[in-house]
C-alpha cells in the first residue's frame, strides 16, 4: 500500500497561562497642574502639604508664584499607601492664606497585571517567549473639575513571562501539552489540573492559538481526537 496508515487516538490538550508580575515599591511620580488662584487676589506663594490618612506629614514645600508660566506645576514622589494621601494646596500672600484646595489621592497600581483605567487605547504585545522580562510605563491623567486641577501619575510596571514546565510547548503567554490517555471530559479536566499550578484543558480562543496547535499535531503520523476546555461534556 502506497499510503501512510494513521491511527486516531483520544487525547487531552492541557494549557497553563504563565504571566507573572514583579512586585516593587518604586516611588510614583505625581505631577499637579493648576491655574493661578484665587482669581480675586494675586498670591505670591503656593504651599503643598501631603499627609497620609493617619495624618502623618509626608511632604510640605512652598514655591513662588513666579514659577507659573502660564500654568503652575509641581511634582511629588509617593509610595503606595493603603489609605491614600490627603493633599492640600494653599495660596498665600505675605504669609496670609487667601484660599486652600484639598483632595484625596490614591496610587492606582494595586494590580500591575490587570490595571483597568477605562482607557480607549490598548496595546497588545506579540512574540513574547517564556522567561521574557519587559517594562511598561503608564501615565494616568485625572482632571479634578471641581478644583480646576489636573493630576498626572506616572509609574513603571515590570512583568515577566514564566518558564514552561519541562516538555511543554511554549507559545506566547501559554504553555501546552498533549496527554495521550483515554479519559472522559471530566476526568481529562481533572487530570490537566494536576499537571501544573493553574493548568486546565486548553481554551483556544484565537485563530493563532489553533494554528499553533494544529501545526504541532501535523508533525505526528497519527491523528488525535482532543478534549479541550470548549468540548461538551456529553
Automatic annotation (TrEMBL):
Any one Gene Ontology molecular-function term assigned to this protein's record: carbohydrate binding
Alphabetically ordered keywords of this record: Disulfide bond, Lectin, Signal
Keyword Disulfide bond recorded: yes
Protein species of origin: Etheostoma spectabile
Protein name per its UniProtKB record: C-type lectin domain-containing protein
Residues in the signal sequence: 1-19
Top-level taxonomy: Eukaryota, Metazoa, Chordata, Craniata, Vertebrata
SUPFAM superfamilies registered for this protein in UniProt: C-type lectin-like
Keyword 4Fe-4S: no
Domain (C-type lectin) ranges: 171-234
